[in-house]
Amino acid sequence: MKKSFAACIPVVLALVLVLAGCVSTGPGSSPPAAPIGDTTGLSAQSASIAGLESTLEYIYAQTNPSVVNIEVETAAGGALGSGFIWDTNGHIVTNNHVIADATNISITFADGTIIPGRLLGIDPDSDLAVVKVDNVSSVELKPVTMADSTQLKVGQLAIAIGNPFGLQGTLTVGFVSALGRLVPVDENAVGPTYNIPDIIQTDASLNPGNSGGVLLDSQGKVIGVTQSMSSTSGSSAGVGFAIPAAIVNQVVPALIKTGHYDHPYLGLVVFSLVPDVARAMNLTANQRGALVEGVTAGGPADKAGLKASQQNATINGQDFQIGGDIIIAFNTQAVRSSDDLITYLGRMEAGQTATLTVLRNGSQVQITVVIGVRPGA
Prior knowledge:
6-stranded antiparallel beta barrel; alpha+beta; Pdz3 Domain
């Protein structure tokens, strides 16, 4: 499935109607007929729909003034994206890919005011950027309110506001359809690459132009920054992705202060332990974890003493490196896959200490590692 960078969200509202069930009055009996003209059930459904509509109307009225349209000029031409107001000092948050290679940036606010923007800081590894507008007295700046994305659950309401196809102030609605997805920093990279962790998946309609817009919860708080979509056509296919608020809250203040962000780093190449590989290592088929395939010389994991795979094995026609440490816990959190490890690491900061629980030759070992700074970050 092709992943396209989005500017996310055409307008489809899915409403779920709860149908009342029938109650039997006894064996073989028929349910009592509703009196002609009884609209009690319909009224309850209408009230529920009206309540949802009122909530969405309120959220849109409160949040749309915080969402901006971003127009950029580059040597290759122009592009449109979205962004949102971070604070009253004129800082605008968007995706790095929206403003990449920009020679000129224009910010259009919800009231139609257009102000030039200047690039303040970028972080390609989280696909976030901060643009600054200096003439803040000419427009009312209404910052967004950030949510705690670590508390999200699949099935919660997800509301996107942005500028799909340049259509400013578009709202679409869906749900949080999955959590903990990974999006590659560079889709065209060959071999191991870094990933943006903890990505929120949503079925709220996302389309080109909404990149950098907001994904909101039912309280109107920002749970994520709409970033991309998975599609074979280049338009919404109901699988969109957003960078979680937890990462935004880490990265943006650093971009405002220093212009860059130091990503946490272990210096490991890992892959998820699967049953066939577990059996090849004389472990039970249901053993899970992140198998250490490689350790970067001189990196934090190397200094802490983690061991990489040294044995070659062919399993189902594929070559694997086996025999290395298997990380099964990060601090107190169970690690069942490489995705888990990347997610937990992404919530740390350089300089902090983590305790890794590893399986080594069938025995559990605890290893303390000081989180480093990702090279080139």
